[in-house]
Amino acid sequence: MSDSDRTRLISSLEIVTGVGLLLYWLAFYLVGMAPDNPPSGYFAHANALAIPECLLGTLLLIAGIFLMMDKPLGWKLSPVAAGALTVVGLVHICFNLQNGVYLSSEIDLAINAVKDAWCAGFGIALAVMVIRK
């Protein structure tokens, strides 16, 4: 894969992930995506992460756009986004596993497990891809 193809792939995935995080939190508050019987502390956990994740989504968008425009700032912001994305994904995975959120319904499993696994997995992959640049 050429450098320009890799850069385009990274930037596209950052933009899609950033938009996805922003849309998730918009839907969480507008549609009400909480489980039917949330565990104790669920809303404190969700509310504590909403603003940081929206900022992370914005950071991913900015990094992806700068990469797409071939600006060096994109390569400087991407590792920051990679680390934050990994931490956010792992925090959600740990909370949801410890509190049975994934088992509360099939829709919670589908949405939350996929989102959380993507955040942790893409965060690690992004860090590797940026390091190899």
Structure report:
By secondary structure, the protein is mainly α. The chain has a domain at 3-29 and 38-89 and 118-131. It is built from four helices and no strands. The chain has helices at 3-32, 42-68, 72-98, 106-131. Helix 1 packs antiparallel against helix 2 (42-68). The longest helix has 30 residues, at 3-32. The chain is elongated. It starts with a helix and ends with a helix. The relative contact order is 0.16. The mean pLDDT is 94.
Summarize the helices and strands and which ones pair or pack.
Elements: H1 3-32, H2 42-68, H3 72-98, H4 106-131
Helix pairs in contact: 1-2, 2-3, 3-4
The ordered string of helix (H) and strand (E) elements is HHHH
Our estimate of the beta-strand percent is under 5%
3D shape: elongated
In whole angstroms, the N-to-C terminal distance is 12 Å
What's the β-strand tally?
0
Gyration radius, rounded: 15 Å
Estimate the helix proportion, in percent.
Answer: over 70%
Return the average pLDDT rounded to an integer: 94
Structural class: mainly alpha
Query: Low-confidence parts, pLDDT < 50 over ≥5 residues?
Result: none
Q: Please work out how many helical segments DSSP would assign.
A: 4
Report the sheet with the most strands, covering strand number, pairing sense and barrel closure. Answer: none
Task: Summarize the model shown.
The protein is an all-alpha fold and 133 residues long.
For this entry, give a set of tags.
83% helix, 133 residues, mainly alpha
